[in-house]
Design a protein that fits this description.
Layout: E1 19-30, E2 33-45, E3 50-54, H1 61-68, E4 76-81, E5 84-85, H2 91-101, E6 102-105, H3 117-127, H4 133-143, H5 159-171, E7 177-181, H6 189-204, E8 209-213, H7 217-221, E9 225-230, E10 233-234
Parallel strand pairs: 3-8, 3-9, 6-7, 7-8
Antiparallel strand pairs: 1-2, 1-4, 4-5, 9-10
Helix pairs in contact: 3-4, 3-5, 4-5
């Protein structure tokens, strides 16, 4: 695959785990109803590794990923990224850290429907401080087979095309930590292989830590480590 990726800036804290969850609980309450999504989760992810998180639906995988991105806060316990306790960062600092050091591809895909594919990817690259964002956005889209769809509004792309556009934005970033939730869920075999290759490239050639929530055995097979979750904790 021909894909331009900015080199990851060397960090001074690479000896620290990229991600840590320490006795993490996440409880959702609606009126008197209570749902415990995570119950005492302990998990660490080594810097520079590629980790797959597997488990049945409802076991807390996506909840953990949202906490790891700083998009939600634990009810108890602590989540750290490269030693930083995300729950203790002020929102402006957390937003800067997320934009600079994290690339996130969740099932919502984070695309703005009224913008074109290239505008969506260039916007994410620009917010991350990448130079020549539009040119690099076009190159990234082309590498995922979307060169002829770059001027199409995101709302008019198919589900699989939206997924590839979101992955293109992730793959062209300088992020130290890449978080993906079912990145190959709607893709055919050829495009699944293309996404897997791009994620491997980010880890092996550019030093990123890649954490993938997935049901795909093909994704799990290429990872350094597979974590099985059940009932809100590591099984």
């Amino acid at each position: 695959m021909s894909l331009y990726v900015e080199p990851v800036v060397e960090a001074t804290d690479t000896a620290l785990p990229a991600l840590e969850a320490v006795d993490v609980f996440r409880i959702f309450r609606t009126g008197e109803a209570e749902t415990v999504a995570l119950r005492g989760l302990d998990l660490d992810v080594a810097a520079g590794s590629m980790v797959a998180i597997l488990g049945p639906s409802g076991c807390g995988k996506s909840t953990f990923l949202h906490l790891a991105a700083g998009l939600d806060q634990p009810s108890a316990g602590e989540v750290r990224a490269f030693g930083r306790p995300l729950g203790r960062l002020a929102e402006p600092e957390l937003a800067r850290y997320r934009a600079r050091d994290m690339a996130i591809v969740f099932q919502s895909r984070n695309l703005l429907g009224h913008l074109t594919a290239v505008e969506n990817v260039a916007l994410q690259l620009g917010l991350a401080g990448v130079d020549d964002a539009e040119a690099k956005a076009r190159a990234a889209l082309a590498s995922f087979g979307l060169g002829d769809r770059s001027a199409t509004r995101a709302a008019s792309l198919s589900g699989g095309e939206q997924q590839r556009a979101a992955i293109a934005a992730c793959a062209a970033r300088t992020a130290r930590l890449v978080l993906c939730d079912e990145p190959t869920g709607e893709l055919d075999t050829a495009n699944e292989a293309r996404v897997i290759e791009a994620l491997q490239l980010l880890q092996m050639e550019h030093g990123a830590t890649v954490v993938i929530v997935t049901h795909s055995t093909r994704v799990a097979d290429v990872c350094d480590r597979v974590v099985l979750m059940r009932d809100g904790r590591v099984a």
